[in-house]
Design brief:
Blueprint: E1 15-17, E2 20-22, E3 29-34, E4 39-45, H1 49-67, H2 71-87, H3 89-100, H4 104-121, H5 124-127, E5 132-137, E6 140-148, E7 151-155, H6 163-174, E8 178-182, H7 189-200, E9 208-210, H8 215-223, E10 229-233, H9 236-248, E11 252-256, E12 261-265, H10 271-283, E13 293-299, H11 302-314, H12 335-350, E14 354-357, E15 376-379, H13 386-389, E16 396-402, H14 405-414, E17 417-418, E18 420-424, H15 428-437, E19 442-445, E20 461-462, E21 465-466, H16 473-479, E22 481-489
Parallel strand pairs: 7-8, 7-10, 8-9, 10-11, 12-13, 12-18, 13-16, 15-16, 18-19
Antiparallel strand pairs: 1-2, 3-4, 5-6, 6-22, 11-21, 14-15, 17-20
Helix pairs in contact: 1-8, 2-4, 2-7, 3-4, 3-7, 4-6, 10-11
Amino acid sequence: MSQTRKPLAVTTLPLWINGKPTPASSARSTDVFNPATGEIVRRTPLANSADIDKAVAAAKGAFPGWRDTAPLKRARILTRYRELMEANQTDLVRLISEEHGKTLLDAAGSLQRGIEVIEFASGVPHLLKGEHAEDVGRGVDCHSLLQPVGVCAGIAPFNFPAMVPLWMFPVAIACGNTFILKPSEKVPSTALRMAELFSEAGLPDGVFNVVSGDKEAVDALLCHPDVAAISSVGSTPVAQYIYETAARHGKRVQALGGAKNHAVVMPDADLPFTADALIGAGYGSAGERCMAISTVVAVGAAGDALIALLKERVSKLKVGPGNQDGIDMGPLITRAHRDKVQGYIDAGAAEGATLVLDGRGLTVAGHEHGFFLGPTLFDHVATDMTIYKDEIFGPVLIVLRVASLDEAIALINRNPYANGTAIFTRSGAAARRFEHDIEVGMVGVNIPIPVPMAFFSFGGWKASLFGDLHMHGMEGVQFYTRTKVVTTRWPVNDERKAPTLAMPTLG
């Protein structure tokens, strides 16, 4: 490690509290690496409870004024923010690629999907319209209001430094809440830059705050009495911990967990098209996506032909630093994670799966200290193997063989994860049956990564989600608001009656 360190010219990042860069009070910090080179590019503080208290106090102080800001004015600030995000896309994409390792093209695509949530949230005057019913009783009207919940917090993962945070805070802030973002300490810079741009767009101080940190910061947010709602994305054990801890402290929670996303390939599928789709879904972002297709279920005769196509095409993928042209797949996020994924490949081979392509031992010339692992392909995987049971979160695609669509559906429905799934087929009947019977939150038909657009909601089922509501879309609006129902009567003198202790009716 001493060969990769750059002790000089490595800056320590600030926190972003109350509209400005703020030094952390915590003495702890961690190194931020460029995964393609293995070099330290900056350091970030690990916020402690005192730092969290400062951020929460800023958000709490800003809440009354922001809550009372007209939704149309909030929308105009969000529109300016979207314009600034678009104008600064090149720099943001560079930051994402530098700290995560994904290719510039992949980083740009993920950033665009996040910006689309800002665009959706800019329609908040319409999104916050309640319901109204006249004359629910004689001379009685009823209407509902959607009001903000208060100080909200988001705990984001490393794999999407911009997109996942953008699933959270634009909707929350549009609804009149204030927000504290805790980005992954592995990729802190993009969040800070997004905060600067939001301030430039005219967002009042304290409405949006960024505090980098680890478990200490997370626990402080989960337990803080002035935080009303928690959004998070992470592994299933972490999601469950966040859900249980925050709920125990009286907060509303949406905690998205892990995944083991299956793609069913029917014998009638367009196999060349399917193979290309699976390669993009399995190896894009080095497999570090919660919506990556990591498991292929080949039905009947589809298996052999599909494996042949995958082997041919995967072997041609170019692995290297994400900021270079012509690169298909970059490095993994850390050396430790690269080694963990490599351990899964060891286990798959030892447990009897057929190792069609082996990504171990890959060295990228000029980047020998980078955290690289080549694309790996397994065939004849069984459901009792470790590489099937665990979420690998790396460039490892596994193929299982089944005899029928019924068997494929049953296999997927037995899996504890239920984030996303897909079917490849030319049969409308098979596709309709699949989308109806499958017990998974997001389904693609000839689409390998069925991530909904911003005006639909994102979220899985079973062990892939803890909480009742999904992210962005109208479920995001519901999560970040409380419904208040108002029933109104304006009596006139001749309608006055003697008091009664009976349950009132409105007939």
